[in-house]
Structure formats: C-alpha cells, structure tokens
Design a protein that fits this description.
Lambda Exonuclease, Chain A, 13 helices, 380 residues, five-stranded mixed β-sheet, 5 strands, alpha+beta
C-alpha cells in the first residue's frame, strides 16, 4: 500500500488538484524511470555540489560518478550556479545576511496529508521568500506561474521561516537552461495562503481518500492510467458530435472548439494505440487486430570488414560531415560553442504555426506579410 506522500507528491499536484481520484489510482501502479529522468537526477546532484561550493561548504565533486555527465551538463549547472549567485547578491541589497538553503526538505503537511518535498534552493531575505527549482528536461517547457509544485514548496518554506521573518512576498523561479527558460512568478503571502486554504487543502483531502470527480484535461499528460481512463475518453470523444464534417461545413466557433482540443485528442489516440500495442505484446488478442513484423532496413553485420573491403577496392567508405548544432554543443559545451561558433550560426524564420493565444511567441499577420512581400517584388 503506497504511503500518502507518494500518493500526493508535489510533482504531480498539477494533476491531483484537478482530478482528485487519480491520485490513488496512480499510486497503486509501479513507477517507471527513463534515461531522461536519470539525466535529471545526475544534473541535480551536480547542482547541489556547485551550490554548496558557492556557499563555501565542503562538498565532494560527484562528476566522476555521474554516468550522464557531459559538457552540456557542466555548462547548464554552471549557469544555474551563476544565476543563484546573482539572486543571493540581489538579496543582500536589502538584507545583510540572507539565509540560503540547498536541497532543503520542505514540509507543507498543514495543507496536504504527509506533504513534503525538496527545494533545490531557498533564499530568505527579510520580507521576501525565494524558491528556485532547477529543471534539466528539454521536452516540456515548465512555467512558474500558478505552478502547484512550486507553490507547495513555497508553503513548506513559509512554514519554516514565517515565524522568524516578516515575510510579505513569495518569489518562485523555474530555471530550465536547456530550454533557455527562466520563468518567475511572484505573489503575496496572503495570496499563497488563500490558494492553499481554498484550492490545495480541499483537493488534497479528497485525493487522499480517493474521492471527488474525475476530470480530463492537459493535466492527464503524465497520468499512469491516461490510456484507459473513461473520463478522458468521454472528454475526447465529444468531438464525435461534429460527425467529422469537412471544415467548410462547420461554424467558426465549432472549429475553434475542435482546435482547442485537437492536440489532446491526438495525444489520447496515441496513448490508446501504445497501450493496445503493449498489451498485444503481452499476449492480448484484440478483435480485428494482429501483431505483425514491422518494416526493417538492411544493415552491415561487420562495419570494420565493410570499410576494409571498400578501401581495398579503391573507394572511401566514410561519410565526412560536420556535427549538427546539438551534437556540437554537447561536445564543446554551450559556453565554448557560443565563443567559437556564434558568428557562423543563423536562425532562419520558422514555419508558421497556429497556436493558442496563451503562447508567448509574437503573432504574425500572414495577409500583411504577403502584401509586403508582393510590394517589395514589384518595387525591385
């Protein structure tokens, strides 16, 4: 039986606050790991070491024991250390001796049963509490605004220091170097406590008991039961009421509704297919479906022998090409890459994409752009 903490972990708060019954369902299933998660763990270990050194504490360099250490990780953790250093110096401008804690256990069980987590870096400077979280992942851009995990950590830090310091404001920052993302969200202590009392605590009480209503949405992304969840199926199958008419036969408002759900619908279909495939590999028979051998490509059974044979025939068997930008950055490290090669890099205009208005990229007006292009062509 999983403990309450693993059921109501802060990292999954975004999901269980929205869909309270999902907490117990997920806790009952085994956790899985990935190479990306292991990379993140290694990067966090290195971050902790570098912050301890920054604070003048004795710490053993873990680099030689980190399986996934490379130049990119070294650069990213250096950038994090520099950022934290800047935040400490800023805190010293209005507080002579700010408190800085690294990998601090934060207890927010006042609002969440057995609720605790680990804050990567906590800075307390008179009336300002700062919580910084390092994210090494590159796949998902993480925002600090209204981020439940960060707000839970802030509550834990507040519980530690509110009786000692007259904290008025809370600053939460996500530092995600591989996405060039530094996202900061600030709110008052009053606003944070109001959220904890009115949103977090009621949801946590329901989630701990496995009660409440299932609710589908973007929070389903990392749910372990997302493929077989009936509520998610109902949510996505609502699109079936449009009977898959051609877009020209739909009203603008209907198309806008479909657009708002299209990505989640595609993700749900992908999850269903992957679940069915894995079950089939384990012997499940699906009516109307079968497992077959996929397409394959020919490959050499001995590359050294191939190379030697081709060279003896008078040909060069090797392909000579410059490493791509990602591979080159990983080899050189971000700082050295920028120093050596920035003058040789260009970033072409990206292909237009239709995204929600919440996307932070500036909008483009294709009609205006096309008119300008036409004007330039006729003037030349």
């Amino acid at each position: 039986m999983p403990d309450i903490h693993s059921t109501l972990s802060p990292s999954s708060a975004f999901r269980w606050i929205k869909c309270t019954p999902s907490a117990k369902l997920n806790a009952a299933l085994p956790d899985s790991t990935s190479e990306y998660a292991l990379q993140g763990t290694a990067a966090h270990t290195l971050c902790e070491y570098k912050l301890q050194k920054l604070l003048g504490k004795d710490a053993k360099d873990p680099t030689e024991n980190l399986t996934y250490f490379d130049a990119e990780m070294a650069d990213c953790t250096d950038s994090y250390q520099q950022y934290v250093s800047e935040r400490i110096e800023k805190a010293k401008q209005f507080c002579k001796d700010p408190i800085v804690l690294v990998e601090q256990k934060l207890d927010f069980s006042k609002w969440v049963p057995q609720g605790f987590g680990t804050g990567d870096c906590v800075i307390v400077a008179d009336n300002v509490l700062t919580v910084i979280d390092f994210k090494y992942g590159v796949g998902v851009l993480v925002e600090a605004e209204q981020n439940p995990q960060m707000m839970c950590y802030a509550l834990g830090a507040l519980a530690l220091f509110d009786s000692i310091y007259d904290i008025e404001n809370v600053v939460m920052t996500i530092f995600q170097p591989r996405r060039d993302n530094i996202s900061t969200y600030e709110l008052s202590k009053k606003e944070l406590l109001q959220w904890a009392d009115e949103i977090l605590s009621p949801a946590a009480q329901l989630a701990a008991k496995g009660e409440g209503e299932f609710k589908a949405g973007k929070h389903c992304r990392f749910c372990k039961v997302k493929a077989t969840c009936r509520k998610r199926a109902e949510y996505n199958l609502e699109l079936a009421r449009y009977d898959f008419e051609m877009p020209a036969n739909l009203e603008d408002t209907e198309i806008e509704v479909i657009l708002s759900k299209a990505d989640e619908l595609a993700a749900w279909c992908s999850d269903i297919k992957e679940y069915a495939f894995q079950q089939a590999l384990n012997g499940k028979q699906w009516n109307g479906w079968k497992l077959v051998e996929g397409r394959s490509v020919r490959k050499y059974i001995n590359e050294d022998a191939v190379a030697e044979t081709v060279k003896n025939a008078g040909y060069d068997p090797y392909e000579h090409k410059v490493l791509g930008i990602t591979a080159m950055t990983r080899m050189l490290g971000k700082a050295k890459f920028e120093n050596l090669l920035s003058s040789f890099i260009e970033k072409p205009t990206g292909k237009p994409a239709l995204v929600p208005k919440s996307d932070k990229r500036p909008s483009i007006n294709k009609a205006v752009q096309a008119a300008d292009d036409f004007k330039e062509e006729n003037e030349s």
